[in-house]
Design brief:
The chain has 196 residues and is mainly α. The chain contains seven helices and two strands, in the order ααααααββα.
């Protein structure tokens, strides 16, 4: 019986050691080596960011000009402010991913957001569209080698595929923010309208 308990205890310890080793591995960013998988992943990322761009632009066109300064409460961003934030992300993150910083743009995110926030609404919306376009092109143009080469993303070293996830999550968050703003102003997002 003692031998049976010892075997069971050893088996449990071996399992725990195996699980402990297993749980740390996913936390370490590992290189992508399969070119076919990489191409498929890159295509999905580009479709996602292009879809976001279309929706940002659709909302920008759906919000009446006199509502672009609207904000839900003091201390929150207005429609205009969110568009400036998104445009600043597109411009500065393009450079972080190895693309060229657009002419006239500032590499520092806060400074770029402040610069863009001063633009008239129509100019800002055009810049946001272009910023999303170049971010998409930059991500789509990354090679497998570039994807496995660490970058500095908001001051921290990481792999581009990890940073891409952060970028897309944040852009989806701001799209949701804008949808909420629109609904609070009785504006139906164009892609939500039923045909007929």
């Amino acid at each position: 019986m003692a031998t049976s308990l010892t075997r069971s205890a050893l088996s449990i310890l071996a399992l725990m050691a195996g699980l402990a080793g297993f749980t740390t591995r996913p936390l370490v960013a590992q290189a992508v080596s399969n070119a076919t998988e990489f191409d498929a992943w890159r295509k999905v990322q580009q479709q996602d960011i292009d879809g976001l761009r279309e929706k940002f632009m659709a909302l920008a066109k759906a919000v009446p000009a006199d509502k672009l300064g609207w904000r839900p409460m003091k201390g929150t961003r207005s429609f205009h402010d969110v568009f400036a934030h998104v445009a600043a992300e597109g411009n500065t993150e393009t450079a972080m991913f190895g693309g060229k910083l657009p002419a006239g743009s500032l590499a520092d995110f806060d400074a770029e957001e402040a610069r863009l926030g001063k633009l008239p609404d129509d100019q800002l919306i055009a810049v946001m569209d272009k910023a999303m376009e170049i971010l998409s092109a930059t991500l789509a143009g990354m090679s497998l080698d570039q994807m496995n080469t660490a970058i500095t993303y908001y001051g921290r070293p990481t792999l581009p595929r990890v940073a891409t996830t952060y970028t897309l999550n944040d852009l989806h968050e701001h799209l949701g923010q804008l949808v909420s703003y629109a609904r609070m102003n009785q504006i139906v997002p164009p892609w939500s309208k039923k045909n007929g």
